[in-house]
Amino acid sequence: MQSALSATPAVLTVELEPEAIVDQLPPPALTRDAAEVIANAVANDLQRILGEGVQSSGLILLGALYDLTELLRPGLPMAEGLLDYYRGGLRGGAFEPQLLALGSAGGQFPVPELAPRRARGSGPLLAIPFALVAPGPTLEPLREQLENELLGKGRASLETDRTVQQLFSVAPVNLSYATLHDVGALLRVQLEHAGFAPLWQLLEAALYRPEEPVAVDTAAGNRFMTHQGQAWTPILDFDSWAACRTEATVDGYLAWQKIQRQYLAGLSAHGIEVIPTAARSGVYSQDAEVALSVAQASALDPADRLSVAVTGDPEPTAAALVALTEQGSPELGPIAYTVMIQGADGAVQYLGHDYPLAPEAIVAIRDDWQRRASRIGARFHMEQPGRLLTTGDPPALMPWFETYGTAH
Fold first, then answer.
1. 168 touches 20 (CB < 8 A)
2. What's 105's DSSP letter?
3. According to DSSP H, which parts of 209-331 are helical?
4. Which residues are CB-contacts of 158 (< 8 A; sequence separation ≥ 6)?
5. Which residues pair with 340 in a beta bridge?
6. What does the angle CA 229 – CA 284 – CA 390 come to, to the nearest 5 degrees?
């Protein structure tokens, strides 16, 4: 009985000059004929690097350039997709070592799930993915050889260099081979060097151990949890953040917000959905399973807002003024909207804060309060001081009072 097929993924990395890809789209996918030319060049390189033993495996290659974030995704689905396509090519027959190259036809990629995204500004390190495929016992020694030798010996040949330049119309600074684990190790070094070691912990778990709940904390007090390709993070409003710190400053909260956004961008780039949650105490448990269960039960709508009422009723039947203060910074933009509703006598009927959980929620919050003002016959007014306005000790967000006096 033939052993089940297995695949070990790797890439030909194509390093470009950063200025060559700024705000540019990666080149389009190659046609199948052109992809076969690249695949033959790669096959020749692998035989030179790994020896004749590589001929016992099949090779399947994607004729396109991918950003590394497209390949390093939860559970490494690219490897499974390549294996499935190779297995389908056998049409139920016995395994045969063969070379398969996927390219576009009529602008369409044969497997939509494996198509390159071609996001603007990808790179400067792009990759041509491929996989060696063979029955498990045959592939295992090749897998070990790839992990042990490919990165050290994996310089592409001049023939491959010329082929890549000609077919993709790019000018590579460097062409070399690496396994996906090598690429992950490179990402780890880059993130740790930049001070994002906790982000690597999250990515590593999502990529290689997606079934394991993992919770990490940053030095600034941000918490993120990952499980099954998703992430959860509690959202702290300014007042709650300040209340649990001995020295709470505006700059400290802005730093916390900046890290939230950086981690959100990093996780999202790797295909990990980030779900905001209410900051209930259990979500900070040191037991990752407990923290995760609390986070899942406290999930917020990622496209909506976190609303924090300070006093009063946000739905009065009548009012004279609905005033919004956009709380933010020049670097981060809007962070929250302080809402103050006043009656005709000047009394505050409602004071609260709305925190947008996604960029699209910024406009939605403004439009919502403008509609509410119109509905109750109130004047709508918004101020944008370009900073966070706070008062008290511990500090709390406050509205802009320029309409009635002096802002503090």
1. no
2. B
3. 238-243, 250-269, 288-297
4. none
5. 323, 351
6. 110
Q: Report helix, strand or coil for 176.
A: strand
Task: State the Cα–Cα distance between residues 34 and 298, nearest whole angstrom.
Answer: 51
Q: Using CA atoms, how far apart are residues 245 and 285, in angstroms rounded to an integer? A: 18
pLDDT per residue as tens digits for the range 12-57:
999 999 887 777 888 999 999 999 999 999 999 999 999 998 999 9
In 130-223, which residue ranges form alpha helices assigned H by DSSP? 136-153, 158-168, 180-193, 197-208
Buried b (16+ CB within 10 A) or exposed e, 101-133: bbbbeeeebeeeebbbebeeebbbbbbbbbbbb
| Euclidean distance between CA atoms 293 and 140, whole angstroms | 38
Q: Distance (Å, rounded) from C-alpha 51 to C-alpha 69? A: 30
Contact yes or no for 76/95 (Cβ under 8 A): no
Evaluated on CA atoms 10, 15, 21, 26, the torsion sign reads negative
Distance (Å) of CA 305 to CA 277, 283, 354:
11, 19, 6
Query: Please, are residues 74 and 207 in contact by the beta-carbon 8 Å criterion?
Result: yes
Predicted confidence at residue 2, as pLDDT, reads 61
Q: Taking a C-beta distance cutoff of 8 angstroms, is the pair 391, 408 a contact?
A: yes
List, edge to edge, every strand of the sheet that includes 273-278: 214-217, 223-227, 230-235, 273-278
Measured CA to CA, the distance from residue 43 to residue 177 in angstroms comes to: 12
Q: What is the DSSP letter of 328?
A: E
If one counts every other C-beta atom within 10 angstroms of the C-beta of residue 211, the result is 9
CA end-to-end span of the chain, whole Å? 79
Taking the C-alpha atoms of residue 323 and residue 243, their distance in angstroms, rounded to an integer, is 25
This prediction's pTM: 0.90
pLDDT tens digits for range 50-79:
999 899 999 999 999 999 999 999 989 999
Helices (H), 321-375: 359-375
Residue 227 φ/ψ, nearest 5 degrees: -170, 130
Alpha-carbon distance 266 to 224, whole Å?
12
Per-residue pLDDT of 247-289, as tens digits, reads 889 999 999 999 999 999 999 999 999 999 999 989 999 999 9
Reference 39, options 61, 22, 15; nearest CA is: 61
**Residue entry with tokens 């790019």:** 170
